[in-house]
Amino acid sequence: MNKKFIILTFFICVFFSGTAYSQWQPDVRIRNWSANSFTSPNNAWSVASSGPNVYIVWTDLRTGSKDIYFRISTNGGVNWQDENRLTNNYEGISYNPCIAVNGSNAHVVWYDTYQGNPEIYYRRSTNGGANWLSEIRLSNNSFDSYRPSVSVSGSLVHVVWYDNRDGNDEIYYKRSTNSGATWGAETRLTSDISYSIVPSVTSSGNYVHVVWKEGRNGSGFEIYYKRSTDGGASWGPDTRLTNDPGTTESPSISVAGMNVSVVWHDTRDGNNEIYHKSSSNGGTSWGADTRLTNNSSDQFYPSVSNQSPILHVVWYDYRHNNFEIYYKRSTNSGTSWENDVRLTNEQAESRFPSVSAAGSSVHVVWTDSRHGHDEIYYKRNPTGNFVGIENISSEIPNGFSLEQNYPNPFNPVTNINFSIPKSGFVKLVVYDIMGKIAAELVNGNYSAGTYKVDFDASQLSSGTYFYKITAGEFTSVKKMTLVK
Q: Are both 155 and 10 inside the same structural domain?
């Protein structure tokens, strides 16, 4: 084949592959009833993803009371299974659910008033949402507990909420060390005469990271941070992350390995704008605040998914004189950011978005009133999370190959190289010892060349895993070992 033709073909493929990364697909209406339904504010995730599985939870009023509902897609958001009702409490309200997943294990928390005052409840599925075990009451006092957030790392499940049992609102924490089967004692994380509210939690391995807003400085709310380096057994001191004359609100936190990202909305510029702050060393030190939005209207409630080095942020925005969902991405851990992307374009309001990314896909859900009442909507970009795949050689290889991951054993990050001699569809999937999908690393069209995939297994348990590549008629399987 003519060499110039090969080079031209390569650049054409790269061009179209690059443009495909920004392709957001049409909105999908997740539920369809005449009653209202709501996604949760940004300290809690209404969407979570693991490999091809995408999970959504929301609050629903179709029965006349507020209940928690759940829905799953097993093919990356293309199709959706029937809804599951997770609560059935006619005498109270079930509100503000948050979901975290690890493979086929799904963990949901919410607050519920059916036994009198608001308390924190938990429920889990061990088979991808097909069945759910009985609910567990995580808090138990005569005062009010609100706005839980949940994170999972291997068999460790972490839950935080705020609670006014101490005369003012404080942050509380509880963990399970056996995937939610049983739970330890509560831990009070804050102790100040001011309010400490709306916590958000994330975890990677034994590192657990919590942010919240607090008024201890007397000049409006600021963002505070706390971490554990031993899986939640003990906690370090509070760290003040913001220090400005405005009011900071509603932090959301996400981690990948040792890279931690926090987003919030902030009035230091006169109106509410979206800000970001990151740590590259597991929360030991923090970089400067980065302003992500810049217009004269207000921006609210950002949600972040950290897939280092790619970061995904969504929020709702009033720049068009009604609330719309916006998205922004960094491909270098927050050093620089791409332009804002408007995800919705409706005369009605779109609010409270939540974002999750897995494999090559990005998933967003939000509350939308385009039908005259609030409904749950979903949107995906099937190639928006591509940066974990690096083309390390555009020289056309002699044949297909899948290399042994390095390092091996590893904790928690390893690299996998593969080569393809012609352009085509490539899928690279990690399986656990039982043959269940643990992660989907590659799922898309790629040009001929050699690629390196960064695999962060911080959300998985120690053990033996297998990774399999499918490219045309070529398949290959290799074994790797995660040791934490």
A: no
